[in-house]
Write a structure and sequence with these properties.
The structure holds 2 protein chains of 2 kinds. By secondary structure, chain A is α/β, with parallel strands linked by helices. Chain A has 11 helices and 8 strands. The mean pLDDT of chain A is about 95. The chains are: A alpha/beta, B alpha+beta. Chains A and B meet through helix 1, helix 7 and helix 9 of A and helix 1 and helix 2 of B. Bound molecules: thiamine diphosphate (TPP), iron/sulfur cluster (3 copies) and magnesium ion.
């Protein structure tokens, strides 16, 4: 299937600004899904609120555009009732880790089979450029006009600590790596986190004098490096890209299935002994 | 192995927003923006069908149709992975 078969063409051109990284995430995600060969009906995309969250409107899967910070909670409910479906949950950095931070760490801890994508542009793009928990120390935003004194989360370290069984990071510049990591994350059985560093030229770029979308992509190219590279040893400030964690762990829905079976057997035995109180 | 040959470089002018990402990162400088800030193939004969423009376009506005389905490796491959 061509990637155009996976989108709702009637809503294009999309609403994102010229050069917005979120469109590049959509592009990479569609290529990953096409390569795996998933059927549109097997996929549920759940998003919250933000420029990033608008992605759910453009894909021709089952989709839910829900409320700010709660995409993972909705996705958890869907997955529990229909575990055979593939859940993809794209979120903005604010959506995932400010208002949605608690949902995020607990979803990771449970290891429910779904793919969380953090479209990290380090800003609240949709509401006009307020700082987020990923903006970082020294950045400018409408809510830190004299520079930000908050430190940023490291999405990878946070996800690893919270127990995610697949953790990856890449940037919009690295289009092929993005499609590759997203594909592996989707196939992985367990909670997958993929951080994609994405450019918001309109807010973060302008406020921090980072130039055009092209300049911001050049910045991703120059300031990131594959995990464990020699360049990283020489320059510890480089941000590593690649797959950090990919491990087998008991998955939540499969474990819950076992609990149901165990409970059924117990109830059945009780019934045969004449205890009816469970009915 | 036979190298892929460009059959058609399709640019959807209704979707292109003129960000210039495809123009800037094309390893062969095939693309340019026209007076209406829409991308077009200025030198299609130089295209090596690496599909980097298609993979990076934020607006899904480019499609490379080549004589062979799979893309030839771009000279910038080392930077991609
Ligand atoms: C409960 C609630 N609080 C606040 C908002 C306002 N709001 C809308 S989007 C947003 C943040 C968007 O930032 P991010 O999640 O990083 O997405 P981006 O737009 O940058 O892609 C906020 C605070 C809201 N819609 N709902
Ligand atoms: S404001 Fe930023 S994040 Fe939102 S569409 Fe524009 S560039 Fe993208
Ligand atoms: S990358 Fe896409 S939107 Fe940007 S100029 Fe090229 S064709 Fe147009
Ligand atoms: S396929 Fe490669 S060489 Fe051809 S126009 Fe696109 S980026 Fe340039
Ligand atoms: Mg954001």
């Amino acid at each position: 299937m061509a990637i155009r078969d996976y989108i709702r063409e009637r809503f294009f051109p999309h609403i994102w600004c010229p050069g917005c990284g979120h469109g590049m995430v959509l592009n990479g995600l569609l290529r990953a899904i096409e390569k795996i060969g998933l059927d549109k009906n097997e996929i549920v995309m759940v998003s919250g609120i933000g420029c990033s969250a608008r992605i759910a409107g453009y894909v021709d899967f089952h989709t839910m555009h829900t409320i700010h910070g709660r995409a993972l909670a909705f996705a958890t409910g869907i997955k529990m009732s229909r575990p055979e479906l593939k859940l993809i949950v794209p979120m903005g950095d604010g959506d995932a880790l400010a208002i949605g931070g608690n949902h995020f760490i607990h979803a990771a801890r449970r290891n429910m089979d779904m793919t969380a994508i953090v479209m990290n542009n380090r800003v609240y793009g949709m509401t006009g450029g307020q700082y987020s928990p990923l903006s970082g120390y020294g950045t400018m935003s409408t809510t830190s006009p004299y520079s930000n004194i908050d430190h940023a989360f490291d999405v990878v370290e946070l996800s690893v600590a919270a127990g995610a069984s697949f953790v990856g990071r890449t940037t919009t510049y690295h289009a092929k790596q993005m499609a590759d990591i997203l594909g592996q994350a989707i196939i992985h059985k367990g909670f997958s986190v993929v951080e994609i560093m994405s450019q918001c030229p309109t807010c973060f770029g302008r406020q921090n004098r980072l130039g055009s979308a092209i300049d911001m992509l050049e910045h991703f190219k120059e300031n990131t490096t594959p995990i464990g590279s020699k360049a990283k040893q020489k320059n510890p400030d480089l941000i590593e890209r690649g797959i950090f964690v990919q491990k087998k762990m008991p998955e939540y829905c499969s474990e819950y299935e076992k609990i149901i079976e165990r409970a059924m057997v117990t109830v059945h035995h009780r019934d045969r002994r004449g205890h009816r109180e469970y009915n | 192995m036979e190298e892929p040959k460009l059959k058609e470089l399709v640019i959807n002018r209704d979707w292109c927003k003129g960000c210039g990402i495809c123009v800037h990162f094309c390893p062969k400088k095939v693309l340019e923006l026209d007076d209406n800030e829409k991308a077009f193939a200025k030198r299609p004969e130089d295209c090596i069908c690496c599909k980097l423009c298609e993979f990076r376009c934020p607006d899904l506005a480019i499609e490379i149709i080549s004589s062979r389905g799979t893309a030839r490796r771009a000279p910038t491959k080392g930077l991609l992975l």
